[in-house]
Amino acid sequence: MEQDTLYQRQVIDRARAPAHAGSLDGATHVGEGTNPMCGDRVRVGLSLTDGGTVTAVRHETRGCAICIASADMMAGLAEGRSALELGTLSRRFGEMVRTGEGAEQVGELGVFAPLHQHRSRIRCATLPWTALMEALDGSKDR
Amino acid sequence: MDLSPAALADPIDALRHLRADFPILNEAVHGKPLVFLDSAASAQKPVQVIDAMSRTMRTQYANVHRGLHWMSERTTDACEAVRDQVAGLIGAPAREEIIFTRNSTEAINLVAHSFGSLIRPGQAVVISEMEHHANLVPWQMLRDRAGVELRVAPITDAGELELDALGRLLSDGKVALVAVTHMSNVLGTVTPARQIADMAHAAGARVLFDGSQMVVHRRVDVREIGADFYVFTGHKLYGPTGIGVLWGRRELLEAMPPFLGGGDMISTVRFEGSTWANLPHKFEAGTPAIIETIGLGAAISYIESIGFDAIAAHEAALTDHALRRLAEVPGLRVIGAPADRGGVISFTMDDVHPHDIATLLDRNGIAIRAGHHCAEPLMRRLGVSATARASFGLYTTREEVDTLAATLEQIRSLFV
């Protein structure tokens, strides 16, 4: 069988056993992303210090392997970063999955670079970031 | 045609020679031969259809119904001949009852607007739980616009219409129309049309069947099944996109107001008011899809040259084979088990998301559909957010189904 470079072990293992799944007790911010085309949904809860640093992130993801793995890697990367840094990372990640370029700028998220060849699946990987940005946006502060 | 004893004994192999008519089947996807198992979404086109459309544009094209010149008259004749073909295809008593639309969706919207305008507030329309959004949303819009009640007939876990429940929904005599699929695009269920029509009529209701999937696979006779309206689309029937059909009983179509206004649908036009053309033109405003209509005609000629006996036998044998092979894939669950079914099979495989299944199959040249299949309420009823769906055309082979099953097993081993 042809196995797509998109479905590397790293992605599949992360989707099967996510490290940051679940709801976050005492989350200061929450956000949600939904894809009406496929019914996938990502909920993100996070804690933000007064200085604007993310201290903890959890995600509840109903979706495909790409979506779950992307959410979980995002959650791991977000901890310890500022909202500003995450905004930049989100833009770079979005650019990379659309063009296949710039994988070196996004750390382990570079594993999703082959998505640019699967236009209909790009949204699966960016959905968690939509939820994260909504959470950081503060519009749904608890 | 292959008349060898083996081919005659095997209805799947009996159509194998027809693959040569579909140029696209020679294409490779990701370096693999295309295995096209998404015909329920839209079927591939035989060279007979492609050539007929190309020939029209090259040699015999002009606007229809209005030109006084040779080209217009010939093109009008060619289009109107397709109306006769469609009437023959579905057993319509009169050619004037055949209305060309853009697709099934537009045909249902036509009925929802036009017949719908005759339904009084307090009356009801019944649909089923397994309708495509095309046979659901137009009725919701009618409900919200006109105060018509929308009732939903449930299905069983096997994916069959619950006829007792349908009877109860009809029992107060308020139902004006029952609008249900003739074959589910998700479950493959073939509905008992005659029984549904008899129940509807006994309760004073009219009945519309969405035949988008059904006309592809079996001979349909609108009189035999007792339909009042029947709709289908050309592109699933090996024809082009942009051409669909509404058939309705003449007395209903005559009582209904026009849907779209414009050229071709009028008798006289004055600023003070206009009068409408006779059927079928009353419902065909504007320049029609001329080239696509001729393409539909070529598609009908093509399938009638094969014959529905051979097409239905191929599909039944192939579907049986597919259900057997898929049952052997560990963790695979076929959704629904209707007794009477067509060549559309929805499934899930353990916790592997249907989109992951579809992408990995695609890398192996296998095209299926994954998602909610334009039937979100049905997904909810089935308790799944999405399914993978393999669907067959007359060109589908046993080997393609085997390739699907083998590749699914390999995909599963990646995830489990």
TrEMBL record, chain A:
Pfam families attached to this UniProt entry: NifU_N
Domain of life, per lineage: Bacteria
One Gene Ontology term of the molecular function aspect: iron-sulfur cluster binding
An example Gene Ontology biological process: iron-sulfur cluster assembly
NIF system FeS cluster assembly NifU N-terminal domain span: 7-82
SUPFAM superfamilies registered for this protein in UniProt: SufE/NifU
Protein name: SUF system NifU family Fe-S cluster assembly protein
TrEMBL record, chain B:
This protein's name: cysteine desulfurase
EC number per UniProt: 2.8.1.7
Xref: Pfam families: Aminotran_5
Alphabetical keyword list: Pyridoxal phosphate, Transferase
Cofactor: pyridoxal 5'-phosphate
SUPFAM superfamilies for the chain: PLP-dependent transferases
GO molecular function: cysteine desulfurase activity; pyridoxal phosphate binding
Family, per entry: Belongs to the class-V pyridoxal-phosphate-dependent aminotransferase family. Csd subfamily.
Top EC category: transferase
Catalytic activity, as annotated: (sulfur carrier)-H + L-cysteine = (sulfur carrier)-SH + L-alanine
InterPro entries noted in UniProt: Aminotrans_V_dom, Cys_dSase_SufS, PyrdxlP-dep_Trfase, PyrdxlP-dep_Trfase_major, PyrdxlP-dep_Trfase_small
Top-level lineage group: Bacteria
GO biological process: cysteine metabolic process
UniProt domain Aminotransferase class V: residue ranges: 35-404
Keyword Transferase: yes
